[in-house]
Each structure stands twice: as C-alpha cells, then as structure tokens.
Specification:
Layout lengths: L10 H24 L6 H4 L18 H18 L1 H6 L1 H29 L6
Catalytic activity: a quinone + NADH + 5 H(+)(in) = a quinol + NAD(+) + 4 H(+)(out)
Subunit structure: NDH-1 is composed of 14 different subunits. Subunits NuoA, H, J, K, L, M, N constitute the membrane sector of the complex.
GO molecular function, one term: NADH dehydrogenase (quinone) (non-electrogenic) activity
Length: 123
C-alpha cells in the first residue's frame, strides 16, 4: 500500500510550528521591553541560597569529576534501553535474547575499557 502525502497535508503542522515560534519570540520581546531595568551593586551581585559568595568561580576543577558525570549519564541511558527489552522478553524470542547479549557484551566491553584506563580511580 503506497500512500502519497501532498504538501498540503503538512500545512497544519507548519501553521502550529509558526504560531508556537511566533508566540515565543513575541513573549520574549514584550517581556524584555516592559520588564524593569533597574540595577544596583547589591542586585547584580551573585546569590547562592543566602550564603555569601567566596572566591573565584573560575577555579580549576579536576577533569575526573566531569568524566565520571558523563560516564554516569552514558551508562544510565544505556540501561534505559533494557527496560523495553525486559517488558517484551517473551515476545522477542531467541533473536531478542541474542541481540541483548550482544548489547550487554558491548556495554561490558566499554565498562572494562574504562576500568583499565583508570578513569574511575579517584585520587
């Protein structure tokens, strides 16, 4: 069954997209123009939960922190792919099982590589 879509079929989507973008742009312009423009030294000072700011915000931070954060997000997202598989485990049959074994093998190979590189060793 070959269904051909005409450009006019997409017209409602483009209208909704245009209206949404128009609303966003209009709201940003109007709020910028009618908002208060008062500034003072106290108002422009950094505020962190009522605790006075200390030091420079540009102090160097160890790259290990960012590596662990990125690795957490990476492996967390990969684990999310296992939930649909677990729900449909019986329906997928042996092919689904083999695919998940391959996926888990690649995931564990990446984890092994990370362990061997010493990324998770915090000093």
């Amino acid at each position: 069954m070959n269904i051909a879509y005409l450009p006019s079929d997409y017209l409602p989507i483009f209208i909704q997209l245009g209206l949404a973008l128009g609303f966003i742009v209009t709201t940003m312009i109007v709020t910028h123009n009618i908002g208060p423009k008062r500034s003072s030294q106290k108002k422009d000072a950094a505020f962190e939960c009522g605790i006075p700011s200390e030091g420079d915000a540009r102090t160097p931070i160890s790259i290990k922190y960012f590596l662990i954060a990125i690795l957490f997000v990476l492996f967390d997202v990969e684990v999310i792919f296992m939930y649909p598989w677990a729900v449909n485990f019986k329906n997928l049959g042996m092919a689904g099982f083999v695919e998940m074994i391959l996926f888990m093998g690649l995931l564990l190979a990446g984890f092994y590589y990370i362990l061997k590189k010493g990324v998770l060793k915090w000093e």
